[in-house]
C-alpha cells in the first residue's frame, strides 16, 4: 500500500485508510494531516481548559464561622468608624476580652461566615489603627501575630488578612496564669530547658542552666530532679518575654508581666513516679509539655508519662530537645517515631510539627480548640535553635476554661487543696496549694481537715502570696501559699482541704469507683492493695469488693469498692481517680461515697470476717 501511495496511485482526497482522512497526495499529505490534527487537538484542549478554569475557579478559603461565645472576633474592616460605631466596637472588644479571661484574637479581613476576603494595604493600615484606638480605650495592648496574603482570584489585586492578639489584665487580677506540667524521661533535658526559658541564658552543654532549679544537694550532684519545683516565665502586654535576665526577683517578674506561665518541673526517673503522679493530679495543670531527647527518642518513662497525661485528660505538646547533638536524620527519625506513637489507636492524636512562626501561631490556636492536635517542637537549649518558636506558642496559648466556668466556680463555697506545708521564720505555718472553688481573702476563717479522727479544725488565713508576691484575694483555679500564723503544723498533712465553715464536707474511709484496669501482670481481685491518687489525696487502699465480678484482667471494667487503710479523706463525686502498685495501673472516677456510719458497719463486718478466718 505504501508502494501505491508513493507511485501516486492513491487518488486525492483518500488517505491510508480510505476517504476523508487527509488532503493532498503522497507522504507529505499524510504528515500535514497528522500535524494539523495534533494542532487542532491542542487548541481544543486549551479552549476546554480555559472554559473549565472559568467555570471551576479555586474555591475561596474559609475559616470556621465566627462563634458568638469565645475570644475570637472576625472583622471585615475597621475603616473610619463613626463615634457611635466606635463605642459599639469597644464594648464588643470588652466582651471578647472577658470571654478569653484577658485575651482576644481579632481576624481582620474576614467575614462573619469565615470567608477570607482580605484588605488592600491602605484599608489594612486604617483597620489596625482603629483596633489600636479600641484597645487603648479599654486599657489593652495589641500585638500583630501574622499577616497572610489572599490571592485566590487573579482578576483582583493581592489582599491581606491580619491576625492580632489583644491583651488586657482583668481589673480584678494581677496577671493571667497558666500552669504547664513538664514531663519526660530522665536526662531528656527538662530542667535545662526550663532554666534556659526562665533565666534567659543558653546552657553551656554541661547543665549549667538547670542548677538554679534544683532544691536538694543530691539533685545537684546527680543532675536528676527528685522533687516538684515551680518556675515562672512572664510575657508583658506586648508579648515580650519577662524573665530573670532583666528582673532580679519573682515579684519584679509578676509586676512587669500581664501573662504568667508557671512550669511544674516533675521527676523523670521511674523511682520518683509517685511524685510525678502527685504533681499531675494535685496541681491541676492546664497543659503538659513532654520533653523527648532527640538522640535517645522514646525511652524509659516517656510512654508512661504520655499515658498518664492522656488518662487525666491534660492537653499535651511535645518538645524534642538536644537537636544540637544529632544529625538532621536522627532528629527526623525521632519525630517520625513520635508521630507513629501519637497516631496509634490508643492515642488518636494528630501530630503537628512546628517549623516557623506561622506554624507556632496556628498550633497555639488549634491546640486548645481541638483535643487531638499535638504540636511538636524541635529545639536546642545550647544553640537556642527554634527556642523562639516555643516562646511564641506559649505567649499566644489561651486558657482552657472561659470566664463563665470560672465565675460559676467562684460562686461556690471556698475549697482550698493543701499540697505543701512549710514552717517559715517570723511567719509561722504556711500551706501551698490550689483554690478549687470560691474566693479566699486575707483574714478569712476556714476549717481544715479531715484529721485522723475525721474532724475539721478552725483556723484563720493571715496573708496570701501568688508566685512569691503579695495578693489580697484568691480566686477559683489559682495556686497560692497561705500563711496560717501559729497554727500547729503537726496537725496538717498533704491531702487535706481548707473549706468554708458553711460547707458540710463529705469524708469517707470507703468509696466506690468505676474503673478500667490498664495493665496488671496477673489478676486484680478482692484484697489487692494499690496506691490511690484522687486530686491531692494519695493513700494506700484495699479492694473490698468488685461488683458483679470475682477478678479483673487487663482492659476490663468494673465498679470497685476501695477502703483507705490509714485515715479518712475528703473526696468529690465524679473526681478523676488513678491507682497504681508496681506495674499495676488503672484509671476511673469516684462513683459513690459511703457515709461514715456505713463505713463503721462495713469495718465491723470486715473485722468479724478476719476473726472467723
Rounded average pLDDT:
83
Rg, Cα atoms, Å: 33 Å
Distance between the termini: 111 Å
Fourth CATH level, the homologous superfamily of the largest domain: P-loop containing nucleotide triphosphate hydrolases
Number of domains: 4
* CATH fold-level topology of the largest domain: Rossmann fold
Structural category: alpha+beta
CATH architectural name of the largest domain: 3-Layer(aba) Sandwich
Strand order of the largest sheet: 9-8-10-7-11-12-14-13
Residue ranges: pLDDT <50 for 5 or more in a row?
A: 1-35, 50-59, 601-613
Tally of individual helices: 14
Helix amount, in percent? 25-40%
Architecture blueprint of SSEs:
Elements: H1 2-7, E1 14-15, E2 18-19, H2 26-55, E3 72-75, H3 83-99, E4 103-108, H4 121-138, E5 141-150, E6 159-167, E7 176-184, H5 190-199, H6 217-222, E8 229-235, E9 241-242, H7 250-256, E10 259-265, H8 273-282, E11 287-293, H9 302-311, E12 316-321, H10 328-343, E13 350-353, H11 357-369, E14 373-378, H12 387-396, H13 403-411, E15 415-424, E16 428-437, E17 439-441, E18 445-449, E19 457-460, E20 464-466, E21 469-471, E22 473-475, E23 479-483, E24 497-499, E25 507-508, E26 510-519, E27 524-525, E28 529-534, E29 537-546, E30 551-552, E31 557-564, E32 569-570, E33 576-581, E34 584-593, H14 596-612
Parallel strand pairs: 3-4, 7-10, 7-11, 11-12, 12-14, 13-14
Antiparallel strand pairs: 1-2, 4-6, 5-6, 8-9, 8-10, 15-16, 15-24, 16-23, 17-22, 18-19, 18-24, 20-21, 20-23, 25-32, 26-31, 26-34, 27-30, 28-29, 28-33, 29-31, 33-34
Helix pairs in contact: 3-4, 11-12
Amino acid at each position: 500500500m505504501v508502494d501505491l501511495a508513493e507511485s501516486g496511485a492513491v487518488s486525492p482526497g483518500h488517505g491510508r485508510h480510505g476517504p476523508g482522512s487527509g488532503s493532498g497526495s503522497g507522504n507529505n499529505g499524510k504528515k500535514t494531516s497528522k500535524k494539523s490534527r495534533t494542532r487542532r487537538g491542542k487548541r481544543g484542549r486549551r479552549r476546554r481548559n480555559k472554559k473549565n478554569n472559568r467555570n471551576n475557579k479555586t474555591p475561596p478559603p474559609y475559616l470556621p464561622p465566627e462563634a458568638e461565645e469565645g475570644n475570637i472576633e472576625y472583622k471585615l474592616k475597621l475603616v473610619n468608624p463613626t463615634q457611635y460605631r466606635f463605642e459599639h466596637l469597644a464594648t464588643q472588644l470588652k466582651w471578647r476580652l472577658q470571654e478569653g479571661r484577658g485575651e482576644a484574637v481579632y481576624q481582620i479581613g474576614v467575614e462573619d461566615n469565615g470567608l477570607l476576603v482580605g484588605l488592600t494595604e491602605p484599608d489594612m493600615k486604617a483597620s489596625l489603627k482603629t483596633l489600636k484606638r479600641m484597645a487603648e480605650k479599654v486599657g489593652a495592648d495589641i500585638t500583630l501575630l501574622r499577616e497572610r496574603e489572599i490571592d485566590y482570584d487573579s482578576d483582583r489585586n493581592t489582599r491581606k488578612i491580619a491576625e492580632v492578639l489583644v491583651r488586657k489584665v482583668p481589673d480584678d487580677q494581677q496577671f493571667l496564669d497558666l500552669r504547664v506540667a513538664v514531663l519526660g524521661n530522665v536526662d531528656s533535658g527538662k530542667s535545662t530547658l526550663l532554666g534556659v526559658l526562665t533565666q534567659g541564658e543558653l546552657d553551656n552543654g554541661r547543665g549549667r542552666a538547670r542548677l538554679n532549679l534544683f532544691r536538694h544537694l543530691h539533685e545537684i550532684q546527680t543532675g536528676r530532679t527528685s522533687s516538684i519545683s515551680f518556675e515562672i516565665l512572664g510575657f508583658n502586654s506586648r508579648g515580650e518575654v519577662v524573665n530573670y535576665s532583666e528582673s532580679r526577683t519573682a515579684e519584679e517578674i509578676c509586676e512587669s508581666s500581664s501573662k504568667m506561665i508557671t512550669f511544674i518541673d516533675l521527676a523523670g526517673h521511674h523511682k520518683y513516679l509517685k511524685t510525678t503522679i502527685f504533681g499531675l493530679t494535685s496541681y491541676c495543670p492546664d497543659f503538659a509539655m513532654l520533653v523527648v531527647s532527640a538522640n535517645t527518642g522514646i525511652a524509659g518513662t516517656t510512654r508512661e508519662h504520655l499515658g498518664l497525661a492522656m488518662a487525666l485528660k491534660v492537653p499535651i505538646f511535645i518538645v524534642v530537645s538536644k537537636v544540637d547533638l544529632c544529625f538532621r536524620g536522627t532528629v527526623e527519625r525521632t519525630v517520625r517515631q513520635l508521630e507513629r506513637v501519637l497516631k496509634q489507636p490508643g492515642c488518636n492524636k494528630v501530630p503537628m510539627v512546628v517549623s516557623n512562626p506561622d506554624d507556632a501561631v496556628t498550633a497555639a490556636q488549634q491546640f486548645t480548640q481541638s483535643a487531638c492536635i499535638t504540636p511538636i517542637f524541635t529545639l536546642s537549649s545550647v544553640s537556642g535553635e527554634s527556642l523562639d518558636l516555643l516562646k511564641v506558642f506559649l505567649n499566644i496559648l489561651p486558657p482552657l476554661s472561659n470566664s463563665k466556668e470560672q465565675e460559676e466556680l467562684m460562686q461556690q463555697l471556698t475549697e482550698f487543696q493543701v499540697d505543701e506545708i512549710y514552717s517559715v521564720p517570723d511567719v509561722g505555718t504556711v500551706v501551698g496549694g490550689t483554690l478549687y472553688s470560691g474566693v479566699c481573702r486575707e483574714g478569712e476563717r476556714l476549717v481544715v481537715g479531715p484529721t485522723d479522727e475525721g474532724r475539721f479544725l478552725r483556723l484563720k488565713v493571715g496573708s496570701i502570696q501568688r508566685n512569691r508576691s503579695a495578693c489580697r484575694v484568691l480566686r477559683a483555679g489559682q495556686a497560692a501559699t497561705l500563711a496560717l500564723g501559729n497554727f500547729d503544723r503537726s496537725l496538717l498533712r498533704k491531702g487535706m482541704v481548707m473549706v468554708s465553715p458553711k460547707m458540710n464536707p463529705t469524708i469517707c474511709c470507703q468509696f466506690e469507683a468505676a474503673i478500667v484496669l490498664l495493665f496488671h501482670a496477673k489478676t486484680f481481685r478482692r484484697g489487692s492493695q494499690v496506691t490511690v491518687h484522687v486530686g491531692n489525696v494519695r493513700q494506700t487502699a484495699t479492694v473490698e469488693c468488685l461488683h458483679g465480678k470475682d477478678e479483673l484482667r487487663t482492659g476490663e471494667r468494673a465498679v470497685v469498692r476501695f477502703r483507705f487503710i490509714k485515715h479518712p479523706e475528703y473526696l468529690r463525686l465524679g473526681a478523676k481517680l488513678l491507682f497504681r502498685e508496681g506495674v499495676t495501673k488503672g484509671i476511673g472516677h469516684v462513683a459513690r461515697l459511703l457515709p461514715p456510719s456505713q463505713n463503721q458497719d462495713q469495718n465491723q463486718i470486715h473485722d468479724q470476717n478476719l476473726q472467723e478466718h
